[in-house]
Amino acid sequence: MSKQSVWWPIPVESSRWFSEEERRVSRRYHDPIQRAVVLRSLSQGLGVVAAWGLIASRGPSVAWWWVVAAVLVALAVPRLVADAWHEFVHEPRFGESPVPPAAFAITTVGRLAIEGGLLTVAFALLQEVGARSIIGVACVAAAVPLASGLIGPRFVLMLHRVVDVPIEHEAHRHVAALAAAHRLPVPRLVELDKASFQGTNAYVTGQRSALTVAVSSRLLSGPDALLRHVVGHEITHLRHRHLLWSAAASSISLGLTVAGALAVTMRIVDGSERLPVLVMLAAVLSQPFRLLLAWLSRANERQADRDAMRYAPVAPELIKQLHLSDRPLLEPSLIARWQSSHPAPAERLEAAARSTRGTPIA
Ligand SMILES: [Zn+2]
């Protein structure tokens, strides 16, 4: 068994695991997406600066709705353009069917409503808030990721209209055996609705009780060894309470970001200009936390991969097929690696090969 630390990556070239053609296909798909992300963030940043300039030029008594609308437009328009491009131009180019326009419109309006509401609340707070209430506001903000991290996955199960996997399916045996190996109660095993989820994936919800393992139809009908391995990976997340730790870490990060951004904003600007400054500061302050959370997540994934290899070993070639079926970014740049919640595909394959002392297939 490899003694590699879960905190650090195994340095490995993606060419060791993926052919030139596989990497070329991945670049063709991901390069435009990465450019779109950079352009979107840049436009949002410039948009907020422009909104700030407009608000400042109108004097201290600008109507609240005007301030909220200016910041909301600056944030939402670049994202709307990027999302529409992704759904209706980029995905169809690769043979994926675009989301129905009605669903896209509903999601967009819903998001705008939530963000508009949050900005209005932030604006109201900025008028009223004193040094003491900053802590209160930060605590309320911190409660959001904790609640959504713990309750959110249950909603995802509902959205995917999960159904119980028939009791005669082999997967039940794997789940029971793996849960026993980790001294956990046997989780409920459900299948994600085919229409709402087409990829090859699985995830888990629950803490020590009400555990659920959800697997996609494609995984359930695929090779048995792969199914067992993926279930093994997911059960490790339950065993080590990764969901809880991640939610707690996000919660602390958001609380600190909000407290820091509020405190600095209150100090450096006054009146209506506070809203765009708060948004920019929060965006900047959240970056180091995002990198830290991604680092924590990659460590959790390495641990889950490692335990899955121990309890449910599988040929790295099968894991490779699993990765390739979901269009992964095969050659992430250094910054993409730092931002990613999962180790790079080549690293995961290398770790799998080393833990079984297998020979990688070039
Ligand atoms: Zn995982």
Short recap of the structure:
Helix content is 68%, strand content 4%. The chain has 362 residues and is mostly helical.
Characterise the protein shown here:
This protein is mainly alpha-helical and 362 residues long. Among the domains are: 19-128, no CATH class; 164-232, Zincin-like, CATH 3.30.2010. Helices cover 68% and strands 4% of the residues. It has twelve helices and four strands. It has helices spanning 20-57, 64-93, 101-128, 131-159, 171-181, 217-220, 224-239, 242-268, 274-311, 316-324, 334-339, 345-355, and strands spanning 163-164, 188-191, 202-205, 212-215. Helix 1 runs antiparallel to helix 2 (64-93), helix 7 crosses helix 9 (274-311) and helix 10 (316-324) packs antiparallel against helix 12 (345-355).
Major sheet characteristics: 4 strands, mixed
How many helices in DSSP terms? 12
Please tell me the overall pLDDT.
Answer: 89
- Structural class, please? mainly alpha
Radius of gyration: 23 Å
How big a fraction of the residues is strand?
Answer: under 5%
What is the straight-line distance between the termini?
A: 22 Å
The topology string of helices and strands comes to HHHHEHEEEHHHHHHH
- Uncertain segments of ≥5 residues (pLDDT<50)? 358-362
* Helix coverage percent: 55-70%
Side-by-side strand order of the widest sheet: 1-2-4-3
